[in-house]
C-alpha cells in the first residue's frame, strides 16, 4: 500500500542543539529536495544510502539559506520503505524552520501528521503493528531496562511469538477443515485430541505472555509513587536524593512544599514516577490547604506510597490518621532522621504494617536508600527482575487481545471435552487466530490505526 504523496517534518526536538534533522518521505522526496539543494554531486542520480554536503538555496532569490548534510535512502531500503531524504541543518529554531518552509512552499510536499512516518512503515510492510507501537515505547522509556525491552519488541520479539501461535492455530484449522470435507476418513477421537493438544499449547504460551503483563506495564509506565507524611519529615529531601538534583525546595519551615512535584527516577532498575506532596496536616493557611488536598488526591491514585516519619518525634495524631488510610495499600514506611535520637515507638507501626516494609534511613547522610530499593523490588518483582531476554507484554491493547484469544481457546477446549461437533469448535479456534492477527496488524481498522499513531510525536 504505497502512498502517492510526499511528506516532511522536523524529526528532532525543537530548540537549540548541535544539529536538527528534517525528514522527507515519499515518491517525490528526492526530486523536490534536489530543487533546493546545491552541491557538487547530483542527488537525482545518486545511489541509495549516500551522504552529500551542500547548501539549501532559495529557488526564487538564489540566496543561500543554510549549510547542510543530506542523507539519501531510496525505497524500499528505508524506514518507510519509500524514498527518504534526511536534511541535517544547524541546530536552532530559525535554521530548521527556514529549510522546512522552503520544502513546503514548492507545493509537492506537505507537512506530515503525528506518527505518519512510522504509520507508512507499517502500511508498506516494513514493520508490523507491534513493532510500530514499540517505537513510541523507545521514545518514552524511563529506564535502561524499559528501553531494552522496547528495543526487543521493535526488532520483532513479540511478533515472532504471535506468528508462531497463529501458525499452530492455522494448522489446527486446516486439520479441522480436512475432516469436515472428508468425514469418511475422520477418526473423531484423534481429531479431538489433536485440537485439544494444540489449543492447550497455544493457551500455555499466551498465559506466559500475560503473566509478564504486570511487570511489563510497570517497566513501561513506571510505578506512580507518592511520598507522603507530615511537614518537615524529609519528603523533599528524599526526592532530591533519589533524583540526585535539587528539584524541591528544602527548609525548616513547615508548609514549604505547596504543590505536588513530579519527577521520574529509576530505583534498582524500576522506574518510579515520584510525587513529592505537601505535608498532610490540618492548617488554616488557604494556599497550604489546597496543597494538602492535592496531596490527598495523589495519595488516592498512587500505586506505591512512601510514608515518611521523623524518628526524632513521637507519633502525631495526623500520623495515626494517615496510618489508618494506608491500611491494605502498597506502603513502605520510611523512618527518617536516624542520625538523631529515636523518640518514635516502632511497635505501634508494626501492629499495622508488615515489619519488612519498614525502612530506617537518614536522607541527610544518604543511608538506607539501598534498603529502600530492595523493598520496592521485593514488592513488585518478588525481589528480582526477570531476565531482559523475557518478552514482556505491556501495551493495554496487546493485553486485551491476548486475554480474548485465551478465552476463545479455553472455550474450544471445553467444547471438545463435552463432545460438541468440531465445526462448532472451529469457530472459537478461528476467533483466537483472528484476534492474534489483529494484535500484529494483519487485520485492523483505520480508526484504530489513527488512534495508535496519533500518540506519536510529529516527525516520527
From TrEMBL:
The keyword rRNA processing does not apply. Pfam families: MMR_HSR1 (PF01926), MnmE_helical (PF12631), TrmE_N (PF10396). Keywords: Cytoplasm, GTP-binding, Hydrolase, Magnesium, Metal-binding, Nucleotide-binding, Potassium, tRNA processing. GO terms for biological process: tRNA methylation; tRNA wobble uridine modification. Mg(2+) binds at residues 236, 257. Its cofactor is K(+). GO terms for cellular component: cytosol. Coiled coil: none annotated. Binds 1 potassium ion per subunit. GO terms for molecular function: GTP binding; GTPase activity; identical protein binding; metal ion binding. Signal peptide: none annotated. Its EC number is 3.6.-.-. Its main location: cytoplasm. It is found in: Cytoplasm. InterPro entries: G_TrmE, GTP-bd, GTP-bd_TrmE_N, GTPase_MnmE, MnmE_dom2, MnmE_helical, P-loop_NTPase, Small_GTP-bd. Belongs to the TRAFAC class TrmE-Era-EngA-EngB-Septin-like GTPase superfamily. TrmE GTPase family. This is tRNA modification GTPase MnmE. It comes from Paenibacillus baekrokdamisoli.
Amino acid at each position: 500500500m504505497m502512498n502517492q504523496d510526499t511528506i516532511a517534518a522536523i524529526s528532532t526536538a525543537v530548540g537549540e542543539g548541535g544539529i536538527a534533522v528534517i525528514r522527507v518521505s515519499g515518491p517525490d522526496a528526492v526530486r523536490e529536495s534536489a530543487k533546493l539543494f546545491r552541491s557538487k554531486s547530483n542527488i537525482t542520480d545518486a545511489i541509495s544510502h549516500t551522504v552529500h554536503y551542500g547548501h539549501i538555496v532559495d529557488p526564487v532569490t538564489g540566496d543561500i539559506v543554510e549549510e547542510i548534510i543530506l542523507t539519501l535512502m531510496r525505497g524500499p531500503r528505508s524506514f518507510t520503505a519509500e524514498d527518504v531524504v534526511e536534511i541535517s541543518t544547524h541546530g536552532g529554531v530559525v535554521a530548521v524552520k527556514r529549510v522546512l518552509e522552503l520544502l513546503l512552499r514548492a507545493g509537492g510536499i506537505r507537512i506530515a501528521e503525528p506518527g505518519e512516518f512510522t504509520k507508512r512503515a507499517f502500511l508498506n510492510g516494513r514493520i508490523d503493528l507491534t513493532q510500530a507501537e514499540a517505537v513510541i515505547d523507545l521514545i518514552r522509556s524511563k529506564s535502561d531496562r524499559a528501553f531494552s525491552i522496547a528495543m526487543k519488541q521493535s526488532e520483532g520479539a513479540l511478533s515472532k511469538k504471535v506468528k508462531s501461535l497463529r501458525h499452530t492455530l492455522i494448522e489446527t484449522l486446516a486439520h479441522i477443515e480436512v475432516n469436515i470435507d472428508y468425514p469418511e476418513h475422520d477418526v473423531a477421537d484423534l481429531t479431538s485430541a489433536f485440537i485439544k493438544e494444540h489449543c492447550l499449547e497455544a493457551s500455555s504460551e499466551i498465559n506466559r505472555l500475560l503473566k509478564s503483563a504486570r511487570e511489563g506495564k510497570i517497566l513501561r509506565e513506571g510505578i506512580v509513587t507518592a511520598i507522603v507524611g507530615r511537614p518537615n519529615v524529609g519528603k523533599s529531601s528524599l526526592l532530591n536524593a533519589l533524583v540526585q538534583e535539587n528539584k524541591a525546595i528544602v527548609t525548616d519551615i513547615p508548609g514549604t512544599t505547596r504543590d505536588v512535584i513530579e519527577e521520574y527516577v529509576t530505583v534498582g532498575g524500576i522506574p518510579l514516577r515520584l510525587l513529592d506532596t505537601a505535608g498532610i496536616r490540618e492548617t488554616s493557611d488557604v494556599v497550604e490547604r489546597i496543597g494538602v488536598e492535592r496531596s490527598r488526591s495523589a495519595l488516592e491514585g498512587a500505586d506505591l506510597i512512601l510514608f515518611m516519619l521523623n524518628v526524632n518525634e513521637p507519633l502525631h495524631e495526623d500520623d495515626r490518621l494517615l496510618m489508618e488510610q494506608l491500611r491494605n495499600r502498597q506502603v513502605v514506611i520510611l523512618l527518617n532522621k536516624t542520625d538523631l535520637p529515636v523518640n518514635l515507638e516502632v511497635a505501634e507501626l508494626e501492629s499495622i504494617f508488615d515489619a519488612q516494609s519498614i525502612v530506617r534511613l537518614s536522607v541527610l547522610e544518604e543511608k538506607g536508600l539501598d534498603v529502600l530499593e530492595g523493598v520496592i523490588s521485593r514488592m513488585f518483582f518478588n525481589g528480582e527482575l526477570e531476565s531482559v531476554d523475557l518478552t514482556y507484554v505491556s501495551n493495554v491493547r496487546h493485553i486485551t487481545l491476548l486475554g480474548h484469544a485465551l478465552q476463545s481457546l479455553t472455550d474450544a477446549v471445553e467444547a471438545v471435552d463435552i463432545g460438541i461437533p468440531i465445526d462448532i469448535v472451529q469457530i472459537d479456534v478461528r476467533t483466537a487466530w483472528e484476534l492474534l492477527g489483529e494484535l500484529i496488524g494483519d487485520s485492523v481498522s483505520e480508526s484504530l490505526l489513527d488512534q495508535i499513531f496519533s500518540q506519536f510525536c510529529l516527525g516520527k
